[in-house]
Every structure is written in C-alpha cells, then in structure tokens.
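Components:
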Amino acid sequence: MKHTVRRTLKDHLIRRALAAPPELAAELLRRGMLTSNERERFLCLLPNEGRELPALPLGPVRFATLLAQGDTVLAAWVVLRNLIRPDELVWLYRLLALHESNEKCRELTRIVERALEGRKGNVRTKRG
Amino acid sequence: MSELNEAEATQANVLVNSVVKNLCALAARAWAKHWIITFTAPTGVGKTTAVDYAQKTLPFDRQVIRCKQITTRYTLLQALALAPGEQWNTHGRNWMCAADLYDRALERIRQRPYLCVIDEADRLRLDCFEILRDFWDDAKLPILLVGNEVLTVKLNSQHERLFRRIRVRFEQRPLREADLRKVLEFMGYTIADDEFTLLWKLVGGSPGFAEALLENANEIAASQGVKRGIEALEGALRYFPTLRAAA
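Structure:
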C-alpha cells in the first residue's frame, strides 16, 4: 500500500522534513525533531520519495548552511524548539545575512537574533 | 582593560584594509562637518568588522547602534537618549512617552555631541529614518549610516527628505584579489593557489562568503578524514546553490 502524507497542519513537519535535503532530515531526526509516531510515518514515507538517510552526522557549519538555504519555517521551528547549539546559531545568523533577503528570511533572522539574546516568543514586528 | 589597551587589542585583531580605512575616514568627516553620510557595500565585505573597529578606535565620542536591537521608533529613541551603561528604569506611572524621550535625547546631544553610527541601517523602519532626520535638523547630529545596497534604494525611493540631507554617499567596492587573499590569510586560512582561484571566481571580493565556503569545505574534508583540498571546496559548493549557478 502506498503511504501518502496529507496536507494538514499536523503533517506539516513531516512534509517539510521529506522535502528537506537528506543530510538535514537525518540530522533533525537525530536531534529528535519528530515524535516517535511522526518519525515512524516519516521513515515509512521515505522510500516513496526514493531517498535514503545518510548515516554520518553533520558538522555545525554544514547544518547551519542547510538550514539557512532551505525551508524558513523548518529552520524557525528548529531554532524555537532549541534543536540547535549556540555555535550553530551564530553560524546560521551569519549565513542568513549572506543570502538574498525576503520577508520570510527577515522574520527568521529576527527569530535567530532573539534566540542569540536568549529570548523567544513573538517576533512579528514589521519593518518598513 | 583601559580604553587604550582595548584599542590596541582591536588593532591587533583586525586587518586594516580599504573597507576599515574608508569607514573610519568617513566617520571622522561626518563628525568634523556634522554631516549625514551613507556607507554602502555588498554583504560579506566586512562592514560590521569595520564598525566594530571604528567603535573601539575612533578618537571622539561615538555611539554605535545595531539594528538588531532596534525594532521600533521607541527603541531607537531609548538607544539615543540613554547614556552608555545607563539602565532604563522608568515604568508604570513614570513611563516616558516618545516625545519626552526625544527631548531627552536632544538635550544629551546638545550637551555632549557624538557621532551616531548605525550598522545595518538598511533594516531600519520608515519612521526611524524620520526620527534621524529630526535629530539632524534639531541638533545637527552627525550620522554615519552603514548598510548594503538596499539602503541607497530605500532612502532614494522612500525618504526623499532625508536623502536630500545626505552629503556623502559612499559605495565601497568589493575587495581586490590581493586584498581578499590577505584578509583570508589574516583570518588564519592557508589556501592553495587552485583553491583561491576557485574562491575568487565564486565569491569575488567577499571574505564573508569565502569564509562560509572554506568552513564547509573543512567540515567535508574532516568527515572524510583528509586535508581540505579543491575537491572539498567543490563539494561545499552544493550547499550554496546561488554560487553554483554563478560558477
């Protein structure tokens, strides 16, 4: 039977993890981003995508680079759930500055800045 | 550590290249003439490093404002109204409205003028630019706005009144090949000629981008248990799709 993932709010993390580069998805699984049920579903769905998860862990710079390049919602989730170490956070901040900026990236940058300051929560302060 | 020792330590930690020299020269000119000056350069060239250097070495009063601390007009006013080290402790009934804070900041500037350096000014909100214009009109506050290309576009299209008051608009060029090599060597990277040729082709004069690429390459090489080489650098490229397209 072919497993599918429905576009619901509950499934959004699994969808995003499936769409992420395999190294990043593997690293996030290692860091416990998904609950055990989600993890099971994710691993069930993975062969459908024709992909395998690499076994080697990512270093801090590569992890931050993949987060900075990829899905901003996933990256924000990783930061807000404390799945990232301080040295990786610093790299993520530096790398975000190097990319072309849009509204979502600016919001992610603000989330990272607040995490660096040790704060979390509402970051939706619009800039002109 | 005394201010003099701190300045000496900063000088030892920063390579004084054209970006640092130009920014310090413009800061001195803004201070001397009471001008508003913009300093724009592409991301990764070393603007923030130059601002840090200037903050510790300029021989006159200055206040550096970093836009990550500034999210509203009120926080900008707080940053300008409070003396260095002063805590903000007026809450509740004693809460100060923006107009009171503005007067306080104005008073502070008149009593003891300083140069206001704003890093990442391209991220400031519209109303913050209006406040800066008011400070210049009312107290001739010398201002150095530092940012990327977006700053010029933003000022040009949305802040005509401030734009007309800017006396110097300086565009810093990316570093030249020899300068980039010097900066990377100063940062502690030993780079072979073929690696540097690839780096220069990909990132031009941006040490920030070059550092990110080199660190990725270092990690790839370390995970394979080898020394960094051209293969690792090419491998790191896949983490930078925009650079790969340029290559």
